[in-house]
């Protein structure tokens, strides 16, 4: 561990002990049913497993991230004799929800990194190559090393592309320099963002936050970082030296009206200046100036710190393939044309899309992956077995929205914008709670890893 990492780790302990000052005995008593509930839920899924279906089907999974690995684990359990192949060139696995904690100064970058190989289930073959062509009419994919892999079923789980080129002047190599942050760009970028936030919290100035106008993964993350930075400024006695601006891409702060209103009230309480209908189009990192498209023309705002969150689109290989939506709201950014309830492709019945790449109205979180993958697997296995599938994806999406260090709100919703709390009576959806903070900082990662292994 380097000196700076040791320093960070001791700061982390301080922050955690500060937040523990907020714990009440009642909170502790509430925590245990929650964790026990998680364990029970895993147990129930295991005991419900029926006899594996015998088959010689060839199944290709494109992408070994959260959704691809979870799909591989579940298929390996439910099928006997299938040839399951995972394609992904990336050898490191990123626990992306942890990027928020790294960029908050609470965890070292290594907290989010592990080896993909550790999660490949026995009997599943991993081809460490990227797919460069989807040919759903020919039932084959082509890798960057020229391998042609044929399949009977395909699950696409390539995640999404951070389109930095969509912001003029943005260069990910500059993250961490000149007050430029980006929580999304990987473990090192999240850590460099923390350094920039910490510097800003020492000096004050103008802090710029916001989100892109495209669909995005974890739409709560830009909001979390606004609150986290506000809290660091307050803890250092420097909030009075800083102006925090949140640039919202439209007239709301979150797609669920009741959550949007709650965030608005909290922003008002913390003195965050909201600029609606401001979409970041360009930055000048050397001059620390950002340009936003607004209904009345371009607006330029100078900053001391900016958290750039780029537009997000389907990876080019999906966007330019026959798998993408051809019309409607998901066509421009190339999201996959799947049925929102079954995750099955609307034109290629042996193809499924899960995780961030799926062109469905909600669901770009790891928590959604947990509910999407069993549905796609259920429909795929039922097709092989000639039975009727049972599961439907309702749009479940969730986000533990950190509102200060030591507090978070668990926001869970579905396609109909209903709030769908998993722990009614224990975790109130729109309350800033210590128990939700514990979930985000401690319980979420083991649950995520269990999901990769097909155990949650
Ligand atoms: C800052 C941040 C905070 C977040 N916070 C939360 C949170 O609090 N809660 C939550 O539930 N979710 C959160 N998320 C979202 C969550 O991490 C993602 O929704 C989830 O990882 C999506 O899983 P996925 O498998 O679709 O994509 P990923 O996990 O990104 O995996 C995609 C995989 O596909 C591979 N791939 C890409 N292109 C190809 C190709 N051509 N061929 C083969 N393989 C390919 C990639 O290498 C990668 O391994 C957060 C994300 C970020 C960035």
Keywords:
456 residues, FAD/NAD(P)-binding domain, five-stranded parallel β-sheet, 10 helices, 33% helix, globular, binds flavin-adenine dinucleotide
The N- and C-terminal alpha carbons lie at a distance of 32 Å
Radius of gyration: 22 Å
Give the domain tally: 2
Q: How confident overall, as mean pLDDT?
A: 91
Count, helices: 10
What is the makeup of the main sheet? 5 strands, parallel
Supply the helix-strand structural class.
alpha/beta
CATH architecture of the largest domain: 3-Layer(bba) Sandwich
User: Can you count the beta strands?
Assistant: 24
Identify the overall geometry. globular
Regions with little confidence, pLDDT below 50 for 5+ residues:
1-48
CATH fold type of the largest domain: FAD/NAD(P)-binding domain
CATH superfamily of the largest domain: FAD/NAD(P)-binding domain
CATH class wording of the largest domain: Alpha Beta
The bound ligands are:
flavin-adenine dinucleotide
Residues in β-strands, percent: 15-25%
Order of strands across the main sheet: 7-4-2-11-22
Q: State the helicity in percent bands.
A: 25-40%
